[in-house]
Design a protein that fits this description.
By secondary structure, the chain is α/β, with parallel strands linked by helices. The chain has six helices and ten strands; from the N terminus they run βββαβααβαββββαβα. The protein has a six-stranded mixed beta sheet, with helices on both faces.
Length: about 220
Amino acid sequence: MAICVIPARAGSKRIPRKNIAPFHGRPMIGWSIAAARASGVFARIVVSTDDAEIAAIARDQGAETPFLRPTHLSDDHTTTVPVIAHAVETLGLCADTPVCCLYATAPLVQADDLAKGLALLSDTTSYVVSVTSYGFPIQRALRRDATGGIAMIDPTQMTTRSQDLEEAWHDAGQFYWAHARTWAAQIPVFGPGARGLALPRHRVQDIDTPEDWLRAEALFASLRG
């Protein structure tokens, strides 16, 4: 079976300790752990953290913490792939093991979507990425200067009808699937062989700022209501 790795370092700046902050009745990371457990596809759910308190809360929520992440993989500049590569190596996983990186701040993630992501993973797929579409055509984006003046970033699209513009997608910030060998080789996520699992926009909210947090709470309440 597959392995879930949830990265959860201590040093978030804009929302201090957001990985374990209370969110609708449980620590934020608890919602990701619950979805992973409910999916039924994981043999192990492992949290990669540098923090003893986060590790204790993760265990209380039903995950494993078989190691503490080293300091050099826990600073503000560390990206996701090296963190999961470290977990793959530390856990001694076989090359063909499917490994899901599930973010700790993804309270809107659905168990069924995790299972669908695994189903999309194949020998010819590098990564399966949760994605969602932009709510407005990015080709019509504006630039705003310090005085408040605005101009189109691409003026050639000024008169193009929005329905004639190509739909654009972005990372939903929930999970990535890949085989252990792909993580271990630290292959870039958005390269050849990557596939996107489409999620509806009302189930996606990146959480980086207090405003993001409030939006996530509202979306969560509407979905559970």
